[in-house]
Design brief:
Low-confidence stretches: none
InterPro entries: DUF2249 (IPR018720)
Mean pLDDT: 92
Number of domains: 1
Helix content: 25-40%
Protein name: DUF2249 domain-containing protein
Distance between the termini: 16 Å
Number of helices: 2
Radius of gyration: 12 Å
Order of helices and strands: EEHEHEE
Domain DUF2249: 15-81
Strand content: 35-45%
Structural class: alpha/beta
Number of strands: 5
Organism: Pseudoxanthomonas daejeonensis
Length: 85
């Protein structure tokens, strides 16, 4: 897991979890991550820090997905999920 990333050298595809029903969120996120190619990223936006989700991503994808916080404030969390080769 990476701390605060400064300037990314990748283009991140937006994924706003706030508009997805809670019961479908994790499945939608896993599907979106699985669809990304190495070198691509997904910019995840949420209203809270999704710590259980981050653990699940680590278990499911291992080192293949890097986690980089872009913003971490109450009510506004932005995380880049970067797919490695």
């Amino acid at each position: 897991m990476t701390a605060q990333a400064e300037s990314p050298d990748y283009t991140a595809h937006p994924f706003d979890a706030r508009g997805i029903a809670r019961r479908f969120r994790h499945s939608a996120i896993f599907g979106a991550l699985a669809a990304l190619e190495p070198g691509e990223a997904m910019r995840f936006v949420n209203d809270h820090d999704p710590l259980p989700l981050l653990d699940q991503i680590g278990t499911r994808f291992g080192d293949r997905v890097e986690i980089a916080y872009r913003q971490q404030q109450p009510g506004a969390v932005v995380i880049d999920f970067i797919v490695r080769a």
